[in-house]
Amino acid sequence: MNYVVITGVSTGIGFAAAEHLIQNGYHVFGSVRKSEDAKRVQSSLGQEFTPLIFDVTDPPAVSRAVDEVESTIGEHGLRGLVNNAGICLIGPLMHMRDDEFRRQFEVNVFGLLDVTRKFLPLVGAQRNCAFAPGRVVNISSVSGRVAYPFLGAYASSKFAVEAISDSLRRELMLYGIDVILVEPGAIQTPIWDKGLEIDLSEYDTTDYKAILRNLHTDLEGQKNGARPVSDVCRVIHTALTRRRPKTRYVIPNSRVSRWWAPRLLPDRWLDFCVQQALRIRLPKPIAMTSHAEKAEERS
């Protein structure tokens, strides 16, 4: 039996990935935060799904989940750990509250790292391991390679996930464990409806009020062009099974405008494209006066 743990399976990529892997012969342990979600997902996915009730930011709950998985799989190891749980907070960095920014990192970075550390022995990070090493698949984002305005908190957390994954992959060579990144763009999941419902009224008193309305329009456009979630599921399956997988798999909703162009354009050109897309009105330039000219004016 192939066993895999997936975090954040209540909806979206996590739920679809669990369903896909079960259809391909896996037994999936999936994390949810609420008992009602555990019952719903269990009912939908059947006997080859085991719910784990924990929040990735709750270390004792994560430890209990590790014990539960270990008691179930016995001498078998995990074929994979898929770190999917995450949140996306939107807002200008100039005005975003410190607690919100920290929450972004608590879930996407520190939670991911804690879950990974605690499950790694079951993936094979131990000397004289009795089972073949498994793999760690971290769900990152194209925002982990390109940072757009108002997604600074989210993008910086995903940049961190990229760095953690690269370092961890090189460290875990000692055990034969591979670490693979999956970098989706816009994917057809409920996250878009949640994102479009985010209340940004706390920024209405700032200079960004009008621009954030334009961002809402841009998000609507991305939602309409989003790729099916099945594309991500196939990539996760590939990352877990291919003999020599890539270190990262990118799944942009537009390979040219959302992947190649942002990464290859000079920074100032990309800044200009963003300014045009969000209709950001630049301030009028203020004439620079030299010290000599100022001294002459005073005299």
Describe the SSE topology:
Elements: E1 2-6, H1 12-23, E2 26-32, H2 35-45, E3 49-53, H3 59-73, E4 80-83, H4 98-123, E5 135-139, H5 152-171, E6 178-184, H6 191-196, H7 209-224, H8 229-241, E7 248-251, H9 256-264, H10 267-277, H11 291-298
Parallel strand pairs: 1-2, 1-4, 2-3, 4-5, 5-6, 6-7
Distance between the termini: 88 Å
Rounded Rg: 22 Å
CATH superfamily: NAD(P)-binding Rossmann-like Domain
Our count of domains comes out at 1
- Count of alpha and pi helical runs: 11
Strand order of the largest sheet: 3-2-1-4-5-6-7
How would you sum up this structure, described in words?
- With 299 residues, the chain is α/β, with parallel strands linked by helices.
- It has one domain: Rossmann fold (3-Layer(aba) Sandwich).
- It contains 11 helices and 7 strands.
- The chain has a 7-stranded parallel β-sheet, sandwiched between helices.
- The radius of gyration is 22 Å and the shape is elongated.
Name its key features.
299 residues, alpha/beta, Rossmann fold, 7-stranded parallel beta sheet, 11 helices, 12% strand
Summarize the structure.
The protein is α/β, with parallel strands linked by helices.
